[in-house]
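ok trying this again, last paste got cut off
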Amino acid sequence: MNRSILISGCSGGGKSTLLAELGRRGHRIVEEPGRRIVKQELDGDGAALPWVDMAAFARRAIEMAIADHAAVARQPGWTFFDRGLIDAAAALQHLTGEPNLERLSAAYPYDRRVFLTPPWAEIYVSDPERRHAFDEAVAEYDRLAAIYPTLGYQVIILPKRPVADRADFVLDRLSQEAN
């Protein structure tokens, strides 16, 4: 059984907050590649910032997601990913037509259940690492919600509830379907 669980969906939809809660509960978590890249780029030359060169940013996110995937392979227990390879590859495909999502998805599989945070305007905020507007976040969500099923993933939409309830929802779904 694949124990790598993707939390994806709308930017500003509560993914990072949910991952932090799962981490507090003792689960292994992997921070979003995009946020880590932005922090690195802000400290460096900034050439791969998403608002400077989105394709370079997406390529770096793909590389980082592949490394993250390999780093937790064969680890016991669930590992929760704040976004991952499919999100980065989908962004690059949207921009340039590359890469082959089916090949990447097959080479670096996650659990077939992916949890999506829906657009939630009431909690959406911009910050130094997230400069795009809510409508852009919704468009990204729509692309991801369409792409995941074509790759064989079962999309599970997270309810718009407090973070503890969301974490319970994820863990309950995983335990129900693991039996």
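PB: full thing came through this time. Helices lie at 15-24, 33-43, 54-72, 85-96, 101-107, 134-150, 163-178.
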